[in-house]
Amino acid sequence: MADQREAKSALVHVKASSGRASTAGRVAVTRAERNVGKDASFPQSSALTALMACERQAGLPTQEYPMKQLFSRALLLVMLLAPMAAFAQTAVTANPNHQKLLIGSNWSETANKRLVYDFWRIVFEAGQVQYAPMYMDKNYIQHNPNVANGRDAFIAFLTAFVPPTPVQPRVQLPLVAITADGDLVTLVSVRTLPDPRDPSKTYTTTWFDMFRIEKGLIKEHWDPDTIAGRANTGGQ
């Protein structure tokens, strides 16, 4: 009875993964479900049949497992197969209600959000670098590996890539959220990238730009950019 219960428990987990792995895995699970509990010899072989079918479809080596290892092996298979389903995740979408995003939990956080929002809208997106001193500290600290420290270095970098354009009333970045925590403000945005499995398609993920405010000016900046990823930068 203990072996049968363990086989049934293992099948529950194998069934969840086999549905993502292959038709063979689903057939094996169905067969196992019909036979588990009918006799004392079948539970172990049926659960293993389903498990090994899923493993083969996942490109994993199969082997004989003692019954005491079956349940933990099934759980491991579920974890290994989980990334296969990740590509079906819900797409990241922007929040169009910027006014709501700009509301902080207190007046200070609201002011900090507005400072970063207007900096992004006027200086970063529109390339109106003459207004940078209104938003950025002269000794601006930059953690993006592609840009040097200092406001002047930021202006030089932006000027090379962003020609001046008319300032828009709203940030054009597809914002998901604007968060504020004390002196920190983070712009969370949608990032769209080419699908490496099919260049004709794209997928969405999330980008962030975090700023530290000091004495009413942006003092420091972080984002997840890399040197190799410069061409695909979602923020700075």
Automatic annotation (TrEMBL):
<protein>
    <recommendedName>
        <fullName>SnoaL-like domain-containing protein</fullName>
    </recommendedName>
</protein>
<keyword id="KW-0472">Membrane</keyword>
<feature type="transmembrane region" description="Helical">
    <location>
        <begin position="74"/>
        <end position="92"/>
    </location>
</feature>
<dbReference type="InterPro" id="IPR032710">
    <property type="entry name" value="NTF2-like_dom_sf"/>
</dbReference>
<dbReference type="Pfam" id="PF12680">
    <property type="entry name" value="SnoaL_2"/>
</dbReference>
<dbReference type="GO" id="GO:0030638">
    <property type="term" value="P:polyketide metabolic process"/>
</dbReference>
<feature type="domain" description="SnoaL-like">
    <location>
        <begin position="119"/>
        <end position="221"/>
    </location>
</feature>
<dbReference type="InterPro" id="IPR037401">
    <property type="entry name" value="SnoaL-like"/>
</dbReference>
<dbReference type="InterPro" id="IPR009959">
    <property type="entry name" value="Cyclase_SnoaL-like"/>
</dbReference>
<keyword id="KW-0812">Transmembrane</keyword>
<keyword id="KW-1133">Transmembrane helix</keyword>
